[in-house]
Design a protein that fits this description.
The protein is mainly alpha-helical. The protein has three helices and no strands.
Length: 70
Amino acid sequence: MREILSRIAGLINVKTIVTFAVTFIFTMLSLHGEIPADTVMTVVVMVLGFYFGTQFEKNNINQGDDKNDK
């Protein structure tokens, strides 16, 4: 249970909040007919791709540091 809570706490940072906010806002604008769905898809895919790309790179850098310490 503590591991789950620590992972959730680790998700709460500015980058994560911005990613979820942009995704939510563009989705709501699309549902209300303010902007076309294809525009939302493009923006959300770009934002999520950037988010997960930076998370992946961060994990690779951290794992590389751990290997160099041994």
